[in-house]
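User: Please predict the structure of the protein below. I'd like the answer in structure-token form so I can feed it into my own downstream comparison script.

Assistant: Understood. Taking the following sequence of 495 residues as input:
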Amino acid sequence: MRSLLKVLTFSFLGLVLFIPSALADNSANRISGNTRYATAVEASKKGWSSASTAVIVGGDAYSDAIAAIPYAYQKNAPLLLTNKTNLSSETKNRLKELKTKNVVIVGGTPAVSNGVATQIKNLGISVKRIAGSTRYETAAKVANAMSSTSKAVVANGFVYQDSIAVIPYAAKNGYPILFTNEKTLNSATSGAIKSKGIKQTIVVGGTNSINGSLYSKLPSPTRISGKNRYDLSVNIAKKFGLSTSNTYITNGFRFPDAVVGAALAAKQNKAILLTNGENLSKEPRAFIGDKNIKTFSVIGGTPSVAAKVLTQLKNPAVGKTIFIDPGHGDQDPGAIGNGLQEKDVNLDIAKRLNSKLNSAGAIPVLSRSNDTFYSLEERVKKGANANADLFISIHANSATPSAAGTETYYDETYQSANSKRLAEEVQPRVVSALGTKNRSVKTAGFYVIKYSKMPSVLVETAFITNSSDASKLKSATLKDKAAKGINDAVSAYYR
């Protein structure tokens, strides 16, 4: 008996210990400091416990930082930032912690003064500077200081967002990043291409960054571009197969955070994606869902990347495409009773769900967003064309006046087990939200869930023909709670 109890006890403890990890949300941590200098220091702590060499650039000298990172990678050196006239205290302390013996300043004295160089020397650290009179010359000199290679990255030296996401790939492969403007191949860049024997170039950015005429003058060019900075960062991660086991996220408009994030991503050979500061942008959102990425590091404080973005990243449904089908519409009102038309109730709840899913980080798609009619076949086709991960059809019920409650249906034709699991997440949450009778999860061959090949459910929220249920469906507050319940069910489904 004691042995049996011991086995049962260990089995129970094993189950308890297993469940939290199995049901965990995604992991998303923040790397930041109170200033750009402090953020660079915090990023360096994630990659280096010590460093005999460090690379320092001016806190506003983004082009210098971009060019410097592949060089820093070859030196196994962290990238640190400084104020141009005084060595920033955070950077000074970090150099001591790293036990740094050599510092390479990238950029001229307008970015990092000789006074800063002297302050570094006073720490007993040797200082070297790589600089030119322009950003093109500085990048060219950095390239010439790197190991030999036959490839280079070419980007517009004034369009910083083009270069950020390619930095890890360039660094890992030893490719220098050279600059040009939109139309002209300047002499410093052409000289570096010649002196290094560059045979192939990777051009980042569209024709607004580097036009077709200039592109054709580069050695064996290959262009990678996107419709915006977010899309470009995704396309770079896709094209070059960058690791997404821990993906870095940063604000595509906050370059101090972006460059130090790119330096850390380069150190760890990971992808870095750009987003806006308030929401996870659509393109990285879709990429995350497609790749099923679960672990993230956000670079920058809340002024740079809002807390909402971390919440979205932690949602296990982030980036998943959820097809929402509000039943009926236009000439087909559905059930009618107690002053309600089903088509209106369905659309109201669906719109609320659409908003909540979008805010939570998923990618919702509505079969209809207004009083329009689509056939059942069209609805199924729309879900398939959206490459939806889940299909949720929203309805209200009708029967005799005494019939009441909520029920959720699934079909066994496709994705039977997953559809049932989704239904079992949805049903109790809608019942709780509306305070309705629980009529349970059921199977039925309703067309939209029978012929949709992804996990699919049809929710009958309440009975329009029942006065008590109808009063609930008239309440904006309760309909909003029902939408929240379905939204929460989607997240729970992916845990």
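That's the full token string. The CA atoms of residues 41 and 80 lie 7 Å apart.
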